[in-house]
Amino acid sequence: MERPPTLVPVADRQQSDVLRPNGGSELRPPATRTRVKWLRLAVVLLALALLAAISTLFGMLMAVASDLPALENAAEYRRAQNSVLYADAGGGRRGPAIARLTGNDHRILLSQEQISPHLKNAVVAIEDRRFYEHRGVDYQGILRALVQDVLNRRAVQGGSTITQQFVKNALSAQNRRTVLQKMREAALAYHLERKWSKRKILTEYLNTVYFGNGAYGAESAARTYFGRTLDPARYGTPGTPPNSSRGVLDGEPLAARLDPAQAALLAGMIASPSLYDPIQNPRRARARRNLVLRRMLEQGYLTRQQFNQALAEPLPTRADITPPSPDSADPYFSTWVTQTLVDRYGAGLVFGGGLRVTTTIDWPLQQAVRNAIRRHLNGVGPSAAVVAIENRTAEVKAIVGGDDYLRRPFNVAVQGHRQPGSAFKPFILIEALLRGISPDRTFVSRPKQFRVPGSPGEVFRVNNYENHYAGITTLRSATASSDNSVYAELGLTLGTRRIARLAQRMGIETPVSTNPAMTLGGLRIGLSPLELAYAYTTIANRGLRVSGTLATRPLGPVTIERVEGSGRDDRNRVRAQRVFPTTIGEQAQQVLAGVLQYGTGRAARIGEFAFGKTGTTENYGDAWFVGSNRELTVAVWVGYPDRLKPMLTEYGGKPVAGGTYPALIWRDVMLSWIQLRDQRRRQRGVQEQRSLAPPVPSPPTAQPGTGTAAEPPRRTTTAPAPLTPKPQAGAGSGTSGGLAPPQPSAPSNSGQAPNQAPRSTPPSTPSPSAPTPPSRGGGATPPSAGSGSG
């Protein structure tokens, strides 16, 4: 019997069931349902991926946007101008340019017009032929590079544009970068092209790209590879040194004078400076240069005649190469001032902010100092370091830290810590005067020994130079003769800690040791010529320590008068601090004047009032003369800068003491200063004012150590009558106007230096009548020249 059809309730059926006449149902296959689910999931994931991509792109653009102002506003790219140091012309005027500040990379930033069109065209032809067509990223170039890499099965061609390379250089990125970093650089390049013109991008690229052999930027590269060819008068010929006397801004940049062959060589080196180095790989360098020339011909940058001429040009040889060096007429001074500027303003502003810095250097005096050193030490062996500081302002007017910066860049004048010997004794003298000890107090000059405090029986033995002893002598005479026995006893009686504190209040920056030998200048850490010169200015200013708002350190010497540019105009203003009373300063000056009048420094006499002190260390390893006239303080050190070598025969077969070469150099420098001073006074039409004490700031009176200024200087009347020598015209030999002292003539016996060497006869000077030496203390007569440690 046939069963009737069964009806399934609607509620019990699935939505996909289909009723059939027999009550069966037909369901959709499972594969269909799976496809629907995956489709829905794919749509959701695609939406999320799109959102993530948009977020990532937005984040990348924001990151790029944050980098762009930093790159765009970087001082060296915003202004494309190096800062320049100028000498002081006096009266607040700017003198000649003496240095262009280029940083450790020696980058000399040029404007668009200062770069040869041949170099611009060569770089575009070989590095980015579509530079003027793309917008920072060359997609055709990327595709072409990819095809070449696939065909050659290795990376043979890059796809980065000049803009991308500039961005990479500006961000100091590494050669091996991640994909994300390259995408970021590409985005930044795109944005930069919307901000800068093509000409500016190309100019800044050429100012920063590396050309090998230490040359960063087009101008540095032009000087390195073609300086001797393009400007032999300045950069010398093969085998001769460069001429540093020419102004650093003289003439047009060498990068503007490059011919097609020279430009092609430099452009070809950018891809791999070492691989295409004309010295290390001349064949590859020539092939690469010729490839660049061919590309320039193909792209219409050269005519056929120019192309053929360029192919025939030789490559630079090893003798033609002049490695980059500071762009300075005096690197010792400029590098020191540069560090002061960097500490104050930051490296970015100093090396790329276009600052115009008027320094304190007196260029004719600077040349005169070098001439004086050369006159006495040329071919002798040791070298000299000299610092000259104006008393009234604490401005460094001349400084020589060495004789060959490229070979020995160490600045002895600033960084050299050498034992001062007896040049340290004025600090003991002033401490004694402060304690009420009269210059005419008597002491016994004889061999002495002292027990070292705190030691198990250690003894400090003291002997005089050449075992010469004066017997009963005064402090005044002991200072003139540099008597060790007197000063050792005096220093130990006063206390070495007191003396050390006084030296630092007067301007010594290096920590002063308190060992017994410090009484004779035997310090654990030596002093620099700069420190000694600056501390002696406190004596010249009669107890007033002068500094300025732009000093090298708080209450230190001054090297900068004015800084202009980048929205600033900073001027130095004099600051002063009273260290000891004026009367003590006057007494110290009169006592130290005896060193020149009848003591160990007779060779330094200049014909007008001056004071100073010789210094000679044990075994003649260091020799000093430090002293002042009423306007200038000069410290002279003579020795071997790289080692402690005894100078036993360098002074005409005799030892070098403080009263020999140092005193003679000091004298020549002072005579040059007097000549310059008098010439300038005549030019200004100002009647010469002669006084014994140097002019100093005139703030209100204050007690010692209060940090406030003191009363103006008083005139004194006990110095010898001023006799200013008349230097011979044209005696200078420097190309920058340096003036030399008078030519040598036969000196009088009274002015002869101790152990005078025949080859170094000092320039003649009037012989002022020396005052009669003090006769107190048992009738002691002034010691003979050369006695004491000098």
TrEMBL record:
The keyword Transmembrane helix applies. Keywords: Carboxypeptidase, Glycosyltransferase, Hydrolase, Membrane, Multifunctional enzyme, Protease, Transferase, Transmembrane, Transmembrane helix. The chain crosses the membrane at residues 38-64. It holds the Pfam family Transgly. One of its GO terms (molecular function) is serine-type D-Ala-D-Ala carboxypeptidase activity. InterPro entries: Beta-lactam/transpept-like, Glyco_trans_51, Glycosyltr_51/Transpeptidase, Lysozyme-like_dom_sf, PBP_transglycosylase, PCN-bd_Tpept. Residues 682-790 are annotated as: Disordered. Residues 385-631 form the Penicillin-binding protein transpeptidase domain. This is Penicillin-binding protein 1A. Residues 703-730, 781-790 have a biased composition (Low complexity). GO terms for biological process: peptidoglycan biosynthetic process; proteolysis. The keyword Chloroplast does not apply. Residues 746-755 have a biased composition (Polar residues). Residues 760-774 have a biased composition (Pro residues). It catalyses: Preferential cleavage: (Ac)2-L-Lys-D-Ala-|-D-Ala. Also transpeptidation of peptidyl-alanyl moieties that are N-acyl substituents of D-alanine; [GlcNAc-(1->4)-Mur2Ac(oyl-L-Ala-gamma-D-Glu-L-Lys-D-Ala-D-Ala)](n)-di-trans,octa-cis-undecaprenyl diphosphate + beta-D-GlcNAc-(1->4)-Mur2Ac(oyl-L-Ala-gamma-D-Glu-L-Lys-D-Ala-D-Ala)-di-trans,octa-cis-undecaprenyl diphosphate = [GlcNAc-(1->4)-Mur2Ac(oyl-L-Ala-gamma-D-Glu-L-Lys-D-Ala-D-Ala)](n+1)-di-trans,octa-cis-undecaprenyl diphosphate + di-trans,octa-cis-undecaprenyl diphosphate + H(+). Residues 98-296 form the Glycosyl transferase family domain. One of its GO terms (cellular component) is outer membrane-bounded periplasmic space.
